[in-house]
Amino acid sequence: MSTSLPVPPDVLGANGLIEGMRPDTALFVMSTNSVAMVRKIHAVFGEKNLYMLDAPVSGGPSGAASGKMAIWVGGDEQIFNRTKPCSTRWATRRPISA
Question: Where do the domains of the chain lie, and which CATH numbers do they carry?
Answer without folding.
Answer: 2-86 (3.40.50.720)
